[in-house]
Every structure is written in C-alpha cells, then in structure tokens.
Amino acid sequence: QSLHAYLFGRTGDRELTLELLQETFVRAWRHVHVLQGMAESQHRYWLFSIAKNLLTDYYRKQATRSTIDQQLQHELYVAPTAARTPHEEMAQQEQMQQLDQAIQRLPEELRTVLLMQVLGEMNSSEIGQVLKRPAGTVRYQISVARKQLAKEMALFA
C-alpha cells in the first residue's frame, strides 16, 4: 500500500501508478535472487529503490513533471464533508491546490523525501536506505521541505 501511495503521489495518475507498480514487481521477480542474500527487513527498501528508478526513467522519457493534484483532490472528496458549507469546500479545495503547487515548486530532492515520508509512510532511516543517504540528511531535508511549504502557505493565508 505504501509503495502504491508513493507512486500515486509522484504521478497523480491511477493508470500510470498501476503500470509502474506492476513493472516494479516484474523487475523484482526477475531479480528475486538478489533477495536471497538480503535481510528480510531490507526487502521493502529494495522495492522502493526499484520503483524510484522506474519513476526516474519515466520522467526522463516524458521530459515533463506530473502533479499530485489528483491525489489531493481525491483526499478532499473522501474526507467527511457534511459539516462544510459550499464556501468552506471551495476554500479548502483552493488551499489544497496551493499546497500542491507549493510541493511541485520544491527542489526535486526535497519533494522526493517529503512524499516518501508522507505518502510512502516511511521514516527517515527507511528513506535514507532507499535513496542511499544518511538518515540525518533525510531528516534535515524533510525539515527544510516542511519549512519551505509552511512559508509559502503563510503567504496565501
């Protein structure tokens, strides 16, 4: 589920997410021998590494960036809305669009660690293993990303 959430958060496209998820598992199956020498706790990181590489390849081929707008809009409609007025609904949708745009303006390395933490439900050491960075660096990058988002969102308030 967290791998699916990570991919969907990066693409914003349900079909593309399923395609990348399928290819991730196909590649994992082709290289299943790699798992034999790896601790079971490392299997998740290995899958995320494959998925991250597939995403990188996809974006290189497309030469465009997708947004997570569909994911954010989906969360808006799934969330309970009974107590909200139409004005509140519109304000929340606008705020989510502003957040999405702010996330897209983050530098790639900050956006990646933030989305892996939030959508991929990974902690800093797990992210560090996938990206081959120290956990401290990942924590710092997440902190910087959150501060930049908070600063940008404060401008809209």
Can you describe this structure?
By secondary structure, the protein is mainly α. It has a domain at 1-66. The protein has nine helices and no strands. The chain has helices spanning 2-11, 14-30, 33-36, 43-62, 69-78, 86-105, 108-118, 124-131, 135-156. Helix 4 crosses helix 8 (124-131). The longest helix is centred in the last third of the chain and has 22 residues, at 135-156. The two termini are 33 Å apart. The model is unreliable at 63-73 (pLDDT under 50).
Quaternary structure classification: single chain
Count of extended strands: 0
- Would you tell me the structural class of the helices and strands? mainly alpha
Q: How many alpha or pi helices?
A: 9
Low-pLDDT windows of residues? 63-73
Largest sheet: none
How helix-rich are the residues, as a percent range? over 70%
Radius of gyration, in Å, reads 17 Å
Overall pLDDT score = 80
Write a compact overview of the structure shown:
It contains nine helices and no strands.
Considering the chains and any ligands shown, give keywords for the structure.
globular, 157 residues, mainly alpha
Helices and strands in order:
Elements: H1 2-11, H2 14-30, H3 33-36, H4 43-62, H5 69-78, H6 86-105, H7 108-118, H8 124-131, H9 135-156
Helix pairs in contact: 1-2, 1-4, 2-4, 4-8, 5-6, 6-9, 7-9, 8-9
